[in-house]
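Need a sequence for this fold. Nothing fancy.
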C-alpha cells in the first residue's frame, strides 16, 4: 500500500467509525487512533488490523465497542481493496466515476469515491446491455449494498434473508427459551445459543435495539394508562 492508498484508507475508515459514534484520526506513528467517549480504545494499521491496550478495554461494554470497531475496520479494508482493483463501470450516460465491483445475471454492484465516503449502488442493465436503470443507492452501507446485490441478482432468494425486526424476535424467543427452564438436551441448548451468536455477529447492536423497543413499549403503556 503506497502513501496515497494509505491516506485514502484511513480517511474512509475514519468516516465509517465516526458514523458509528467513535472518534478517529491519524496519530503520531502513522496509525489511525480510535476513541470512545473521549477515551482511547484502539489503533488501526494500514492493513486493516487493530491493536489495543488491556486497560482500554477493561469493561464488557468497551470490549464490545472494540469488536464493533474491528468489524468496521475489516469491512472498510475489504471494500477499499476492491475499489482499488475494480475496473471503471462503462454505461451509456454514466461518467467513469463508478467502479464495477461485481456483476451477475444482469445486476451490477458498483462503488464511487466521494467526500462523504464510498457510495454504493446496485443497478439492472437495460435489455441492450448498454444502459442502466432502477438504481438502489447505499451511502456508507457496504453490507446493505452486498445483500441487495445478492437478492436482486438471484444469487440468494429474498425468502432466505430475515429482516432486522424478524431477527430481533427470533433472538428474543431464543433468550426466553433458555431462561424458561425447559428440559433441553445439550445439543438443543447448543443450537439455540449458536443462533443467538450468529444474530449478534450480524447485528452487533441488537441488545441496544431490544432495550429501545422495550422502553418504547413502556412509554406507550404509560401513555395509555394516563388516558384512561
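Here you go.
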Amino acid at each position: 500500500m503506497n502513501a496515497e492508498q494509505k491516506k485514502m484508507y484511513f480517511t474512509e475508515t475514519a468516516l465509517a467509525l465516526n458514523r458509528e459514534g467513535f472518534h478517529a484520526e491519524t496519530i503520531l506513528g502513522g496509525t489511525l487512533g480510535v476513541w470512545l467517549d473521549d477515551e482511547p480504545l484502539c489503533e488501526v494499521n494500514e492493513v486493516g488490523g487493530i491493536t489495543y491496550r488491556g486497560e482500554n478495554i477493561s469493561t464488557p461494554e468497551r470490549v464490545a465497542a472494540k469488536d464493533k470497531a474491528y468489524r468496521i475496520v475489516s469491512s472498510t479494508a475489504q471494500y477499499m481493496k476492491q475499489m482499488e482493483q475494480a475496473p471503471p463501470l462503462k454505461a451509456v450516460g454514466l461518467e467513469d466515476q463508478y467502479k464495477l465491483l461485481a456483476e451477475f445475471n444482469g445486476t451490477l454492484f458498483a462503488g464511487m469515491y466521494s467526500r462523504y465516503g464510498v457510495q454504493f449502488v446496485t443497478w439492472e442493465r437495460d435489455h441492450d446491455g448498454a444502459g442502466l436503470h432502477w438504481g438502489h443507492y447505499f451511502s456508507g452501507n457496504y453490507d446493505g449494498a452486498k445483500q441487495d446485490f445478492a437478492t436482486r441478482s438471484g444469487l440468494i432468494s429474498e425468502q432466505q434473508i430475515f429482516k432486522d425486526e424478524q431477527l430481533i424476535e427470533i433472538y428474543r424467543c431464543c433468550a426466553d427459551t433458555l431462561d424458561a427452564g425447559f428440559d433441553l438436551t445439550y445439543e438443543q441448548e447448543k443450537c439455540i445459543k449458536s443462533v443467538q451468536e450468529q444474530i449478534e455477529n450480524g447485528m452487533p447492536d441488537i441488545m441496544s435495539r431490544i432495550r429501545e423497543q422495550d422502553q418504547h413499549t413502556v412509554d406507550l403503556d404509560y401513555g395509555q394508562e394516563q388516558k384512561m
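For context: Residues 164-227 form one domain.
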